[in-house]
Write the structure tokens for this entry.
Amino acid sequence: MFFAIFECHDSNTMLKNIFIIILILTSIFYKSQNLEDLDRVTENYIDKAKYREAIDFNIENLLKFKGSKNKEGIIMVYINIAKLFCVLNEYKESSKYFEEAKTNIKNVKNPLLAGKLYLEYGISK
């Protein structure tokens, strides 16, 4: 079924189809790379005990992810911010962000992200 897109009668149609596939694959890679970068930078802030800077960084990314409707990115930011507020002993604020992440995770089928949410949630309690 996948290879049916290559069964084109002219080279222009085939090139268009290949271009579309490349765009889709690039989009998928870019999305996962953004999440890895977000996690890496957040952990760097944590390692340096710059928790407020980490929160600010994640809030900036939250706005970007909301603008691009990247649900996984939004959830990842909520998890990170919740963890950071927990480290700062601001449990009420932490709980608010964990609840946002739990609400939004229902709309995403990503078991690794769900695992991260419940791991961080469990550690914080």
